[in-house]
Amino acid sequence: MAEPPTFARFLTRAFTGLYAPILRRQLMTLGLLDGLKTYIVAAAMVVTGLAQVLGVNLPAFDTHASGQLVLEGLAVLFLRHGLKTGA
After folding, report:
1. 72, pLDDT greater than 80
2. CA 17 → CA 14, 26, 39, 80, distances in Å?
């Protein structure tokens, strides 16, 4: 015997039926973040590295050296900026 539909299942089906195609289209184009995705990743690397330097324990980054993460983040940031202005 099938379970009666719950409100959560109803919301899930409504979301996937109505909003999933819209969300998929927006995520596939990512027009909102054009030109900023690399800067966001570089900033996240620098912030994560600085947090580790200050003593914040981030379990997902235990194997990474904090100084190396900061320097790689800065390298990505300046490389992207140099390519953007030099081209």
Report:
1. yes
2. 5, 16, 34, 39
Q: How far apart are CA 5 and CA 19, in angstroms?
A: 20
The span from the CA of 45 to the CA of 26, in Å, is 25
Instruction: Report how far apart, in Å, the C-alpha atoms of 8 and of each of 13, 16, 25, 70 are.
Output: 9, 12, 24, 43
> Distance (Å, rounded) from C-alpha 49 to C-alpha 76?
14
Residue 58's identity, in one-letter code, is L
Any idea which residue has 């300046």 for tokens?
78
Provide the pLDDT for residue 79: 87
Question: Length of the chain in residues, anyone?
Answer: 87
Nearest to 79, CA basis, from 50, 51, 39, 40: 39
> Which run of H or E residues covers position 9?
helix 7-18
